[in-house]
Amino acid sequence: xxxxxxxxxxxxxxxxxxxxxxxxxxxxxxxxxxxxxxxxxxxxxxxxxxxxxxxxxxxxxxxxxxxxxxxxxxxxxxxxxxxxxxxxxxxxxxxxxxxxxxxxxxxxxxxxxxxxxxxxxxxxxxxxxxxxxxxxxxxxxxxxxxxxxxxxxxxxxxxxxxxxxxxxxxxxxxxxxxxxxxxxxxxxxxxxxxxxxxxxxxxxxxxxxxxxxxxxxxxxxxxxxxxxxxxxxxxxxxxxxxxxxxxxxxxxxxxxxxxxxxxxxxxxxxxxxxxxxxxxxxxxxxxxxxxxxxxxxxxxxxxxxxxxxxxxxxxxxxxxxxxxxxxxxxxxxxxxxxxxxxxxxxxxxxxxxxxxxxxxxxxxxxxxxxxxxxxxxxxxxxxxxxxxxxxxxxxxxxxxxxxxxxxxxxxxxxxxxxxxxxxxxxxxxxxxxxxxxxxxxxxxxxxxxxxxxxxxxxxxxxxxxxxxxxxxxxxxxxxxxxxxxxxxxxxxxxxxxxxxxxxxxxxxxxxxxxxxxxxxxxxxxxxxxxxxxxxxxxxxxxxxxxxxxxxxxxxxxxxxxxxxxxxxxxxxxxxxxxxxxxxxxxxxxxxxxxxxxxxxxxxxxxxxxxxxxxxxxxxxxxxxxxxxxxxxxxxxxxxxxxxxxxxxxxxxxxxxxxxxxxxxxxxxxxxxxxxxxxxxxxxxxxxxxxxxxxxxxxxxxxxxxxxxxxxxxxxxxxxxxxxxxxxxxxxxxxxxxxxxxxxxxxxxxxxxxxxxxxxxxxxxxxxxxxxxxxxxxxxxxxxxxxxxxxxxxxxxxxxxxxxxxxxxxxxxxxxxxxxxxxxxxxxxxxxxxxxxxxxxxxxxxxxxxxxxxxxxxxxxxxxxxxxxxxxxxxxxxxxxxxxxxxxxxxxxxxxxxxxxxxxxxxxxxxxxxxxxxxxxxxxxxxxxxxxxxxxxxxxxxxxxxxxxxxxxxxxxxxxxxxxxxxxxxxxxxxxxxxxxxxxxxxxxxxxxxxxxxxxxxxxxxxxxxxxxxxxxxxxxxxxxxxxxxxxxxxxxxxxxxxxxxxxxxxxxxxxxxxxxxxxxxxxxxxxxxxxxxxxxxxxxxxxxxxxxxxxxxxxxxxxxxxxx
Length: 1108
Prior knowledge:
- The chain is mostly beta strands.
- The chain contains six helices and 70 strands.
- Strand 68 and strand 69 form a beta hairpin.
- The chain is globular.
- Keywords: Signal.
């Protein structure tokens, strides 16, 4: 399995973008090694310090008991107050006159066995004043350190005290009987939660004080969906991110096929803060895999009570704010921008047609006319991607791709609005997963999901328990199917039985003594907040007053398989599998225990089972939070090293934290140039919750990557390959765009835009290292310059060209200049300078003065320079290329190569015209390409001015001007003769025909020779190319027959003309082959490949004697 690593200087480059940073090549397979005697070398894989399954102490629950008359004026006291006997409770007077009225308290810890199940994860207390005493205020401090790990999901960080009237046990929905969260000071370091509470006389009805977890805390927020801000701000320039990608090999089939890979990004871990949902993905911390989704965000109703809202009391429900969306598809992600009259467009415009449609029956009840919302995205090749379609053509099963949650339309004009707030909600989608793909030929792919549901107490009413979808996991992908109609495709046929599948198995996020999902042993589900569950069978959800989003699943195995018609009867054949091993590793400060991907075990399953050596991962613990207000550093794990199947190692070194408490006290967010970013959160010491404090969180960069071959025994060890990164200058932080969803007072400069310049050195010997210096755009022009407003003016100069280039927001991540040196920065060898371009806005929106626009981005001019003489002693040869780009479609209209800018007469122009089918969004289909030896805009005067001219016919069209139907070139002509004013003469160069699936059927060359390809079986779903027969009608005639194994669609036997043959045998992931020529004297050759961790990968070739 090939893996690729990349230290991301530009984490993602959109379509039509300027050139990305040079891709770091994957670790090269080492050559076969020999020992000093010429024999094969054995070796061993690099060892890793892999800490597994962080143990947690068994919970020590305090005994039930009561202490009478705890004197508040007692002299034996601590900073927390007076301890209530041997109970884990301290009491003290509250602030103000109400606190001074108290002289003593009775304290009781209630027996857990007598409590409702929902209250047993914490502690229930009762505090009362003596008989006849007036109501007063007391401060209670509860020590939970003995049972802080009794529940998962960072329970301790979310712990708080609640005041629960006694009547809540019997009549929780009566006014005055609801649980009320208290403003809690949670000392995580000591494991003590403190709050002030009203205390009445023992003769009154009394109330309980409950220590329980809420949805959020200083270590994260389960009320937030998994769309963390890092998905946008980590994609900056010169980011220093470490990325690693593990692609999974997928059997091919006609039409759309999945691309599955496990992708890691250290930047995703850097983005974890107090305001994000910090449960690691189903793959593990820093990793993820998702085929695509569109997500909409809502706002807490408690933050949406102005401007005529019909809600007058705080509640934990979700409320409508705006019709917003964020999309992830085909490795790209970003905001979708809507403008009336222009529709939906991706902020990183790529020409896709984006539509929000209705009527899917997917559980989205919406408002009037909006029921069953789903999305269709049509890319520029005509392929349609559906999100949340739910019911697919020809299928009776449902994809379960749409996740919904109750949403209140609390303002007039919003979906589901009614006069009363309690009647203003309906189920609205918060995520639409990709579930159906159809290409322009009618080939299809479908994706199937499993939902995870939960309930919560709507409108803060315990008995108003309402269901919602808290998560969803991908179960399988079916492909090799089709759905064609006579009107669109020329034939009516449908297949819903897949040729191939990718199956995703899930397991518990727990490994030992887990219990069941209906009765979990919560202490062993270390990153799962079971305390936030309200069971489907429950009739009320006390203390569950807001929806939370989390999963109990982890990805445990991925299996590819095909429908094998060579079996009798036909049956599924597993092809390959990847088993994921997970652990819960300890962090340096023990604050976070999240799912960690420990290993990947790959196996081939055809012709027997072959288990390859595992890929394993070592972690390093890094503090995310600058140690300030809360007393914790919030450590998370990052990849420190990877050992591959071959035993080679990739080792990563990160920077040390730059910010300290003393440093951040001097920082202003708008002028911050340190590697830490601010997050504004409510001050835990302010009982009103209105005061905000700024917490600071670290950003890490990769300093060095080493690649080591397998450790050899008795041979010559290969040198390590070292790559060093030097970041020049200071980093930039961008102000958060106003999306109308975040509170204005929470917005700050927290979008990472990285460094303007990075020096990359590769090599072992400092004297012979290569050096490349790359200058980046960071998108800082127009950024807010101060809290009171204003904007920045930022340009990015370069050593070539006279253009003034502003650092526009859309250019973030583009390369402005790259200089390659001969080892040291005094010997430049070559340089490239790019001038970026952006189109007019294809859509835009403005909220609170912040404008966000969708635009195409490209490079309009490129300068290339080569040093002349030794170290450029004779100057530079500079060339220039310029493009004209269409504003509507983002396609190139013409490109001019000026050649050497110091000379004239060597210009060349290539112009393009297009034949588009806008109804199908086929917008990239080139009709004619003309190359002249003239500057662009100058008409040729003779045939000598024309270098080449070619034009394309599409889909069997009789005229070159006929719009394409499928976008397949059926005929290409080149210019044969031309004269100004007398017309043109064209010559056919090639012709082609295709079958209904879009597979090549015939190919005709310039001499009229025809090559015909037959597919057996003919069904497009059952075969892509194997087995097949190719026949040629030229002279001499020949025929080639290739017979393939269904699992991989690779040839097992090829017979050519005149009589040559080769065979290949597959066993697991191991390929063995033999070949022989047409003559009896040809030596048959046999090859066989092996891979182990004890020696380098080997391909062995054997030749036998010639046959007589």
